[in-house]
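UPF0225 protein SAMN02745244_02721, pasting as requested.
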Amino acid sequence: MSQMNETTICPCDTGKAYDGCCGRWHWGRPAPTAVALMRSRYSAFALGLEDYLLDTWHPTTRPATVDLDPDTVWTGLRIDARTDGKAWDQEGTVGFTASFTSPDGKGELREVSRFFFDDGRWYYLDGTY
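Structure tokens follow.
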């Protein structure tokens, strides 16, 4: 993981310090909402936290491994839409656009992700592009 400290701005584009934003979820506290989990997963992609991505992927859809491309640099996140996914819900969706650069140039990934609350934690279930 790159050098992150209490004053480093979180990669998820909230403008908050990493420690008070996605860092706490990366260090083991469960994200309280689907949007918080979505943001923390984006930050995990940006920081290369493959174990966190697997740990927050629902067991019914989780792949055996996550192999991040070290040449892809995630440069921005925008939350486009959301349904449910609050602390009292069982399911939620988050539509987002994630910007990146790669050896092929600049691009965007658009997805509507589904999240499921199970055993006291939010999990990423799957997504459609």
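Note for the archive: The chain has three helices and four strands.
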